[in-house]
Amino acid sequence: MKALILLDPGHGGIINNVYQTAGKRSPLWSNGQQLFEGEFNRAITQGISQALTLYGIDNKIIVPELEDISLRSRVDRANFLAQQYPHHRCLLISVHANAGGGKGVEIFTSRGQTESDIVADHLAHAFSQIFPNKPLRSDYRDGDSDKERGFYMLRKTTMAAVLTENFFMDNEIECCLILMSPKGRQKIIDYHVQGILAWVEQRFRVESSE
């Protein structure tokens, strides 16, 4: 089955040692380390893209630039690329690091029951397998693990879309030991890839049975 995975690295990167999105950074920790979210988001989406390519799954990073591209432009790019695939074979993953105090990972979808909820469940299961001792910040009031919000990237895209908030960059332990470590980043990449592969496999089974 041909599927297209669109990858959205949130916020801007670093150009000439200048970070492109104000405020989207960790504190400067006592060890001298500091996380810039746009750099992290790009590293994770690059890793996901490389893994999906090895599996033979079509994918596209919709913001290859280091500049912070507007949400409207991101959505327009995603919707344009999705036109070449059937609606139910296209998926958008928007990758972020969290802030505001807390720990763990959050997986967001738009409001209501959609294909995005199925994707989120696959990602949540993969996360629990790869990070068995880390909290998934879930909302089970509607019967599944995702959190539902009216985020622009989730509301305006024409395909299933999920936004992941990967640990807290203002939590020193999570930031230094997971978000900024090669091992931690690889595990974040792995849970995204495993969740995506599970969704693609499920879609293949559904189509084969129809």
TrEMBL record:
Catalytic activity of the protein: Hydrolyzes the link between N-acetylmuramoyl residues and L-amino acid residues in certain cell-wall glycopeptides
Keywords: Hydrolase
GO cellular component terms, semicolon-separated: outer membrane-bounded periplasmic space
Hydrolase as UniProt keyword: yes
E.C. code: 3.5.1.28
Keyword Hydrolase: yes
Gene3D superfamilies xrefs: Zn-dependent exopeptidases
Residue ranges of domain MurNAc-LAA in the record: 78-197
Gene Ontology molecular functions: N-acetylmuramoyl-L-alanine amidase activity
Example GO biological process: peptidoglycan catabolic process
Pfam family, one: Amidase_3
PANTHER family assigned: N-ACETYLMURAMOYL-L-ALANINE AMIDASE, N-ACETYLMURAMOYL-L-ALANINE AMIDASE AMIC
Protein name per the record: N-acetylmuramoyl-L-alanine amidase
Originating organism: Photobacterium aquimaris
Taxonomic classification: Bacteria, Pseudomonadati, Pseudomonadota, Gammaproteobacteria, Vibrionales
